[in-house]
Amino acid sequence: DLLAAPRAAAAGEPADGAGFVTRALAAFDAVLDAEEEAGVTEPMVNLTASFPEVPCPSCAEFTDVPALALMAALDSAVREPQRFGYTPRHDLAAAYMHRFTHSFASSASADKLRRDVLAPYERR
């Protein structure tokens, strides 16, 4: 899980969007570094992350929607990492668009997830 360390740092507390995303960008870049050093070529495996189910008051979008706020923040960050104070070594946006899958674990019912997470996402 690409975000295991950043998620552990945010466990149980509202997320610091910028800090979380910067750690996620660095982890993503490090995976691409390791692949490059190892000579990994096509087909490339997909990368995934399970986002924490916490609100993110400092995020730009979906501040009160658990997981979705950080997903949106990461989406923005891979497209414009310099806005988050990160200088990537690789084309994170291209790797993200072609290889990244978002996920999150939840104990909420399907109806609650549909109402509280999927509906706001679909309105985006």
How do the SSEs run, as a string of H and E?
Answer: HHEHHEH
* Multimerization state: single chain
SS class: mainly alpha
Rg result: 15 Å
Number of helices: 5
Gap from first CA to last CA: 26 Å
Average pLDDT rating: 85
Major sheet? 2 strands, parallel
What spatial form do the alpha-carbon principal axes imply?
A: globular
- Beta-strand residue percentage: 5-15%
Short description:
With 124 residues, this protein is mainly α. It has helices spanning 4-10, 17-38, 68-79, 92-99, 110-123, and strands at residues 47-51, 100-104.
Features of this protein?
124 residues, two-stranded parallel sheet
Task: List strands and helices in order, with pairings.
Blueprint: H1 4-10, H2 17-38, E1 47-51, H3 68-79, H4 92-99, E2 100-104, H5 110-123
Parallel strand pairs: 1-2
Question: Your description of this structure?
Answer:
Helix content is 51%, strand content 8%. By secondary structure, the chain is mainly alpha-helical.
